[in-house]
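INFO worker-7 received task bundle
INFO bundle size: 2
INFO processing item 0
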Amino acid sequence: MLTETDANTLAYFFKPGGASWDQHRTMVASIPDSFRGRFVAVAGQPLALVRGGASDGGITVLRAREAADDAIDWAGAESLAIPDLGPGFDAPSALYVPSPSYQEHDIERLEWVACGTYGVADGLLWHVGVDGW
């Protein structure tokens, strides 16, 4: 689970399947300079986290090195910085990802839509896809 904090970080919590959240209330990792974050589970690949910077960090994708059955070490994850999407996307106000909750098939590609920075470009959307990573 990810939560967004007032300190512009993402707090990551983990609980094993079937376990109760009562026993897993402690944050496992903090992901700094992050305003938004979304998990993407691409079929046959480790879990990915698309995170949008809170200031001028732009968008970075982190990919787990271990199975999602265990808590993920996001600090040790593979990292892919997304090239500059243009003015107004340094701190995206929203990220939208494909999700099994509203799709009938497996997610076959790492992709998302970013909404521009609030008050600057929040009327703009950018569809981003990454192949071969």
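INFO item 0 finished
INFO processing item 1
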Amino acid sequence: MKNLLSIVIPAYCEDRNIALIHKELTNVLKKIKTQYEIIFVDDGSKDDTWDEILKLYNQDKHIKGLRFTKNFGHQYALLAGMNYAKGQAVITLDADLQHPPEIITQLLQKWKEGFKIVNTQRIDNTKLSYFKKTSSTLFYKLFSFLSGVQLADGMADFRLLDRKVIDELLKFNEAGLFIRGLIQWSGFPSINIQYTPNTRQIGESKYDLTKMIRLALSAITSFSIIPLRLGIIIGIITSLLAFLELLFVIFTKMFSYDAVPGWASAVGVLSFLFGIMFILIGLLGEYIGQIFMQVQNRPKYIINETAGYDKEDKQ
């Protein structure tokens, strides 16, 4: 629909934040004076998130909702919202209000200037933990180095995408979905806008350490085979070290009377080599797992209920 703006908001167990983000967004969007739709995607929440979405749907004609059958993950909730969005511009942001809605005005301005992708870059505040800051910085640097796709530190899933970008993104059929990487990889004209995140007022972050590690592994293995090549290099180096150790043992045995039977060095070398081997086997397993998930060709998500959509709207 021409001049329509779509807002996509994934939500997992955010029942107390749904009304708040709706209020903040509505205040901003009314000032912009444009047609808009707000799409909430309930990612299999176990609380009253869907009920809160239905309440808003019955009160506000701009609200639409999608409900997954279970928790498929943040990236797939974003994908589902993009799949149903009808706007010429689509903005994605989280439901916890850490992504300030007032930035939307700047996103739209840059889009009108011709940028197809308008990213936001988080300026870390002092309240963010040292571990969170360090791990985030290391991930972005490592991902950019291994994949060749440059992601700025602090770049999140708060952005504006032009319809052309959305249409191309929906053509991808990857099992390990990392939307940030795919968007940057697409090569459309882009720009970054910096923002300071708000403090989460209600609830806790659902992105724990396990989910962060899983996303990082999926992102890196989806975009790069350099880890496999590094594995080959490590294998060659450790093999050479083992061969040198063998030569040293033979030389000592043949030309020295100081050869003392001992187990420390042997156990040390074997432990080192087996440690490297298991790391490489695990790395291969991660790539094989990605292939396994891809060839199964299962749907990336299953929608249980919708609000504001007719049967013909389903995609």
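INFO item 1 finished
INFO post-check item 1: The longest helix spans residues 264-296.
INFO post-check item 1: The chain has ten helices and eight strands.
INFO worker-7 idle
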